[in-house]
Write a structure and sequence with these properties.
disordered C terminus, immunity, Alpha-D-Glucose-1,6-Bisphosphate, Chain A, domain 4, signal transduction inhibitor, CRAL-TRIO_dom, phosphoprotein, alpha+beta
């Protein structure tokens, strides 16, 4: 606050801010409330001709600052006095204390602009206003840091908090004695293990009382951070809290633990927007392929158990789980020919899931955060056979999937006994590996791993595997050639791949600007129920439901993709003909629903008529302000972060007879419905419509 007040009566860092005069000032008796109103003189950077036409050299704004020392808030309101009958500008800023850490300051800012008329130069004024506002936003942090540094140079590094006068304290104390005492709340141990903060625990109990500050269960408690998360700067801690809160507000599926969220933040150098994007994509991917249940529901084929030369082997000196892979002894060609890419990929996913579980166990055992594992790769026996093209292709795909969904899980990679052919393999593989991951690679040729700086620096002598000259028996399979009798034809492998990866009941689709994705559902019996469940993986979309008495033309599978577009992220099908008119050829049966990136949406529609229903996912364009064509600042900034006019959705639809529908998405337990397994795993709240219920 003291740094902020130094901006007045004028600020050299803001050239357009010429001067200011105090119009009114109010202070409460206990000095907790301080309201000051100023008239600010601004020299707007506008064309000289425009200033001459307007007849002014300066414009004046009224700024009102309301400080509440008791609540520790500062509200700033500003509006224009000059040309107020032609242009209406309102700005609001707010400084508050972070709800979870009182040493942090939160800052919020919003503004609106309404240009009624301005001598025919409305568009020019709009551009000038946007330019000035954007410039002020960029310089805001720089200015406050300038005055903070100025205070430090003057020896002011601490300002004591406001405390009420003695009389107020006595009155407050008496009132506190009369206040009814809330019953004690039992906080279960499981809440601490799951990483819930104190606020969340109290909310789950249904008690409206405020959380007690400084309890061991507080999410930001130093002991919790040291025990489970490791060293975090205040900025990193803030990023974690903000991303977790965003997930709690928007993601209705399983919320990952703090350790997992932290991995994605570290992978993107704590850039929240980038981390949020890859985390949302990963959560959707996990849901689509049911990865959360892979350890419990999937048993690897016997061929993998016999010939995949890899397994877990104790831990390294840092307490990380140690995975040993004897790649040189493994018949990658034989495994790919016998199992196909998908089975190998699923096996690697199960290894990674087991690694996450072992990290949690070692965190408890060693009493410090362990969020990654060490991988020891022995290349003894590696030869040109391992460079078989389909095998390398499978390896690259596995690396791509693991990099995208298990970031920052590899603490160290020890590559031993690298032969001459290794540089060839490394040249093929290294471009697909993240730079941060590559820094964790240690490569030893021949027996170099036995010398100084070798294996003993990272692994205790007692657990060095026997095949590397150690004394510990390693139970990792020795690998060997896969018998050709176990090989399968390309057709058999293709069918097996489909079987493995179509266990998911979801489909993926891409939505482009000007090219929505549409699904046709034919209804024979009225009063049937169309149900849907979809996740918005990327971008914002608008969801619509239409009805038509006649069937649309089937989409053309032409090379130009006029009606059907296929992309790596999913297909795109357009059914509504461009000559069709809404209200004549088809009608809208539900209000459009805007869905933001990362949201999971469930809903249903009870059909009134037989015919053809079209579910449509359409690209959502940034809206303009309600009273002007000027875009909101938040929208402008958001649009700058969108890399392309493309959205991705993952969806599932089903038609249920009315006799099987019980009127609620959370009670779809019909034996005829595969949808019940979705509703059981997803928490949803509902919005009622006249003929449907949509829930997020």
């Amino acid at each position: 606050l003291q740094a902020y007040e130094r901006r007045f009566p004028t600020c050299p860092l803001i050239p357009m801010f010429v001067a200011s005069d105090t119009v009114s000032e109010y202070k409460s008796e206990d000095e907790a409330i301080h309201v000051i109103e100023r008239r600010c003189k601004l020299d707007i950077d506008a064309p000289r001709l425009l200033k001459k036409i307007a007849g002014v050299d300066y414009v004046y704004f009224i700024q009102k600052n309301s400080l509440n020392r008791r609540e520790r808030t500062l509200h700033i309101e500003a509006y224009n006095e000059t040309f107020s009958n032609r242009v209406i500008i309102n700005e609001h800023c707010c400084y508050t204390v972070h709800p979870d850490n009182e040493d942090w300051t939160c800052f919020e800012q919003s503004a609106s602009l309404d240009i009624k008329s301005f001598f025919g130069f409305e568009s020019t004024v709009e551009k000038i206003a946007m330019k000035q506002y954007t410039s002020n936003i960029k310089k805001g942090k720089e200015i406050i840091e300038y005055y903070l540094k100025q205070l430090e140079e003057e020896g002011i590094t601490f300002v004591p908090r406001w405390t009420p006068p003695v009389a107020c304290k006595l009155e407050s104390s008496t009132a506190h004695m009369r206040r009814p005492v809330s019953p004690a709340i039992n906080i279960p141990d499981s809440a601490t293990k799951e990483g819930l903060n104190n606020k969340e625990i109290l909310n789950t109990s249904g008690s409206p009382s405020e959380p007690t500050a400084g309890t061991p269960d507080d999410k930001l408690d130093a002991d919790y951070i040291k025990r489970y998360l490791g060293d975090l700067t205040p900025m990193q801690e803030s990023c974690l809290i903000r991303l977790r809160q965003w997930l709690q507000e928007t993601h209705k599926g399983k919320i990952p633990k703090d350790e997992h969220i932290l991995r994605f933040l570290r992978a993107r150098d704590f850039n929240i927007d980038k981390a949020r994007e890859i985390l949302c994509q990963s959560l959707t991917w996990r849901k689509q392929h049911q990865v959360d249940y892979i350890l419990d529901t999937w048993n690897p084929p016997q061929v993998l158990q016999d010939y995949y030369a890899g397994g877990w082997h104790h831990h390294d000196k840092d307490g990380r789980p140690l995975y040993v892979l004897r790649l040189g002894q493994m018949d990658t060609k034989g495994l790919v020919r016998a199992l196909g890419e998908e089975a190998l990929l699923r096996y690697v996913l199960s290894i990674n899931e087991e690694g996450l579980r072992r990290c949690e166990e070692n965190t408890k055992v060693f009493g410090r955060p362990i969020s990654s594992w060490t991988c020891l790769v022995d290349l003894e026996g590696l030869n040109m056979r391992h460079l078989w093209r389909p095998g390398v292709k499978a390896l690259l795909r596995i690396i791509e999937v693991v990099e995208a969904n298990y970031p920052e899980t590899l603490g160290r990679l020890l590559i031993l006994r690298a032969p001459r052919v290794f540089p060839v393999l490394w040249t093929l593989v290294s471009p697909f590996i993240d730079d941060n991951t590559r820094k964790k690679f240690l490569i030893y040729a021949g027996n170099d791993y036995q010398g100084p700086g070798g294996l003993l620096d990272y692994i205790d002598k007692e657990i060095i595997p026997d095949f590397l000259g150690g004394e510990c028996m390693c139970e990792v399979p020795e690998g060997g050639l896969v018998p050709k009798s176990l090989y399968r034809t390309a057709e058999e492998l293709e069918n097996e791949d489909i079987k493995l990866w179509t266990e998911t009941i979801y489909q993926s689709a891409s939505v482009f600007k000007g090219a929505p994705h549409e699904v046709l559902i034919q209804i024979v019996d009225a009063s049937s129920v169309i149900t849907w469940d979809f996740d918005v993986c990327k971008g914002d979309i608008v969801f619509n439901i239409f009805h038509s008495k006649r069937a649309p033309q089937p989409p053309k599978k032409d090379s130009l993709g006029a009606h059907s577009i296929t992309s790596p992220g999913g297909n795109n099908v357009q059914l509504i003909d461009k000559v069709w008119q809404l209200g004549r050829d088809y009608s809208m049966v539900e209000s459009p629903l805007i869905c933001k990136e990362g949201e999971s949406v469930q809903g249903s529609h009870v059909t009134r008529w037989p015919g053809f229903y079209i579910l449509q996912w359409k690209f959502h364009s940034m809206p303009a302000c309600a009273t002007t064509n000027l875009p909101r600042v938040d929208d402008v900034l958001a649009s700058l972060q969108v890399s392309s006019h493309k959205c991705k959705v993952m969806y599932y639809t089903e038609v249920i007879g009315s006799e099987d529908f019980r009127g609620s998405m959370t009670s779809l337990e019909s034996s005829h419905s595969g949808f019940s397994q979705l509703s059981a795993a997803t928490t949803s709240s509902s919005q009622s419509h006249s003929s449907s219920m949509i829930s997020r």
